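Q: What does the assembled structure look like for these inputs?
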Amino acid sequence: MSVDRKRLIIEAATKSFSLFGYKATTMDQVAKIANVGKGTIYTFFKNKEELFDEIISTLISEMKREADEAIDPELPFHENVHRALYKILEFRKQHQLTIKLFQEEKEMGTPAVLEVMTRLEAAIIHYVKEKVIEAIKKGEIQACDPELTAFIMLKLYVSLIFDWEKGHEPLEKERIAKIFEQYVFKGLSV
Amino acid sequence: MSVDRKRLIIEAATKSFSLFGYKATTMDQVAKIANVGKGTIYTFFKNKEELFDEIISTLISEMKREADEAIDPELPFHENVHRALYKILEFRKQHQLTIKLFQEEKEMGTPAVLEVMTRLEAAIIHYVKEKVIEAIKKGEIQACDPELTAFIMLKLYVSLIFDWEKGHEPLEKERIAKIFEQYVFKGLSV
DNA sequence: CTGTTGACCATAATGTTCAATTGGTCATTT
DNA sequence: AAATGACCAATTGAACATTATGGTCAACAG
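A:
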């Protein structure tokens, strides 16, 4: 069996998207990095956007895996949500690709990037929502709108981790957990 | 006494900023609308940005006045915070000028507009912060970091009023109050 | 003399053009 | 059958020309 060209292409594209962003990445460049003819890319992916989408799908899976790993079924719900969300946002804050895309979304508003970032947020909310539903079933928290609760949790976390830093000293991980316990979970406790 | 030219200029500029935004408003246009020589503007304001700043200061005062009016000292703290924040954000959502600026901030990132929007947010947080400090003094809520609490309240409100609508049915005013009571104030209750 | 003005200027924004680049195709090669 | 890269239409952006804009100031009016 010859080299796995699809894998080569995905790896090359990921590298290029991470380095230069979506718009600034050319298909020629991807082909060059992957040591592959440009036409080959189009035997695996309908177009540039579909290639991008597949990479984002992988990214979402990775996030999910990282979050799952951070969770310990023995711990209480609020501790696990904190761990999961913190991991996801740290991931987002550190990974080359997400940083670049976040930047491109704000600075250029590339439509394909905007779309994908929405998908990313939806995936995170969906993930948290499932955890909330589980917790309600187990009686760990009181009944509430899971979608709304997940939404509030994510927005609050993003604010605390990304926005607060703009005008203040960053909050310690422990501090964020405490804040969350006090403000959100006390209101959800049974 | 001749006509109050300064007032004319401010009114003209406010109208033009509301209609076309900061960048798209020219000093010639302001002078024309105000029925004033362009040079006159520069006897009252050092430059375009200072004129803009004065208008925003007025806007902030108006917001403060509206919020103060919405507050009823007889009511509990959480009800007043809800009323004040809701008024402020409704104001922001409905007033021509803030809508235009919000749009300009996102779409073009005009530096002067960005600066001013930061100032606006700081003013709102400062306002809420004072209310929080009062409430702590009166023993209405438990001790907490007033700045952080004000920050969280604003961010959550903004998320609920502006972001939630992007993917869902808008939340009723009463619903927002309930959510806030449940998620934030239960954690602050004494 | 005080307050006002608009023609004027340097510079920034905008429109225009066109050669180079890019995403995507497909006849040819391996 | 799989892979390729020359090729094409569409898009982009560098370079230049033109216009518009913020800000000044000598002249003017009351």
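The domain at 49-188 of chain A is CATH 1.10.357.10 (Tetracycline Repressor; domain 2).
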